[in-house]
Amino acid sequence: MPTRRKFAGQLAGIAALAAAPLRYAHAQNLDLARILVGFPPGGGTDAIARRLAERMRGGYANNVIVENKPGAAMQISISTLKDSAPDGGTFLLTPTAPFSIYPFTYRKLPYVIEDVAPVTTVCTFPFGFAVGTAVPASVRGVRDFIAWCKENPGKANFGSPAAGSTPHLVGILLSKLSGTELTHVGYRGDAPGLQDLMGGQVSGYFSTAGAFLPHLKSGRLRMLAVSGVGRNSFLPDVPTFREQGYPITATEQFGLFMPGKTPQNLVRRAAAYMQTVLVQPEVTAMLATFAMTAKPTTPQALTDVIKADTDEWRRLIKQIGFTAES
To answer: What whole-number distance in Å separates Cα of residue 77 and Cα of residue 210?
Structure first.
């Protein structure tokens, strides 16, 4: 648990970053910068990247574009960043799972953490669990779902946006803790997975909490739980797993990264600029539409979070006996 002194030190570090180098940032704008995204256009990550690009355009660089590099569980986008010139002009916006979880869920990766330079945390978010039309309306909580699965083993399944992803692992944790065999169905992103959930082809679905927000009013899915320590302010009526007797706590963050060999003065310059972007009301409001909370940090703070998450997921993955994918 962070001490008051440590928290104050982090705030001081952010303040120093935000204040000192801005004159340098404006004086030496790049002609062009780009933000890589490991997902197709139209999704949540793409939308966040495009809003950040708008806010960086004319300030950090004269023009900032978003390049979508989907595929291979974000490995293509990370490899593109790794091979990019370390000149301050290329960023990657990504969940931190490829660095803290994928080393344990994939047998071989084309990168290591040293291939990227953390710039700042962008936002934090919990995961959610929802059921669809295949599950009767009487199922109102996680315990109800587990009881229903035991009575209907042929329908005891759950989907996630990708095999080996954090939502997949949260589903495995629920399976282990409840003593119920839940069959995983992996999808290529949330769009097909949520379509099958609402169409009754899959019983439950784990993803980021915000992925369910646009569909809640349709009545074709019901959120049963979120994975935060406490309830999510954007979904105050959805209880946590812990409230329902399952000790599952999992949150993640989006981070902004540069190529690993980028000089530290350029990393600090980018971090300083992003501190001004991530506190703007328009940006925080946009993140809220995805049930995400803006959280600008120093490069070192993001590095520390990834290390702590890596240690925790190493322990959990060993505990649940997950076998790495090829």
So the answer is: 23
